Amino acid sequence: MLCAATERSLIDAQSPYNQLNAEEIKLKYPAFKLQPDEVALYQQDSGFLRATRCVQANIRLAKAHGAIVHERTPVIEIIPSSENGKILVRCSSDDIIDEEFDRVIVTAADGTFPVWIDSDANYYGFPSDGQIDGIKLASDNLGETITDLDAHRPPVDDVHIDQMRQYAEKRFLNLGKNVTHSQTCIYTNTPNADFIIDHVPDQPNVFLVSGCSGHGFKSFIEPVDANLLYKRY
To answer: Which of these, 188, 183, 175, lies nearest to 215 by C-alpha position?
Structure first.
């Protein structure tokens, strides 16, 4: 479970961590099964944030500072004005008329058991959070491309559930095979899978933040995005 890139990031960030072998993991977290030649990176102060609540908190703060937020509203056109420096945003919703803004950000999108990542196998998971029975086990493998965001999410098929069970049997001790909840996750990805935080060419007060949603939240936390946009531009 050793990820060299993760270890380099921890070193660069001067974040304390320990490298544990299979026996040490067995003593500390007996639910895990590691092979004798496997090691793990343990970061004591790690955890997870609830992305939706964090985004909602940031939206409240933005509104308190005068921001106008329109959720789930497709933007049809952004028209810069050469007269007053304002930006005209044209939306497709019948309930929202064309509006002018000084600055525009377009975000097109969707304890005894630790938060863990198995980089080599592309699996990760969380302990029980009290909302759904059991632990979370997720696969970071992309599926089919979705073009209609209003369509219902496809259910998790039996093939993927069987793959999850096989992995869980290999990695965990005494974990039941009953699946209490399953769902697919929609990723917003750029063509090269990199995140984009940049201004539109020739329009320095119009920004594009893409490749985010919950996927981006895990990899590049939203307050960091906001801090960059506020201080850099």
So the answer is: 188
**Average pLDDT of the residues in 1-22:** 81
- Fold classification of 51-109+189-232 is FAD/NAD(P)-binding domain (3.50.50)
Question: Which of 217, 215, 131, 122 lies closest to 181 in space, CA to CA?
Answer: 131
What is the residue-wise DSSP string for 53-90?
HHHHHHHHHHHHTT----TT--EEEEEE-TTT--EEEE
What pTM, to 2 d.p., does this model score?
A: 0.49
Dist CA 233 CA 228 (whole Å): 8
pLDDT for position 7: 84
Quick one: 209 exposed, middle or buried, by C-beta within 10 A (0-12, 13-18, 19+)?
A: buried
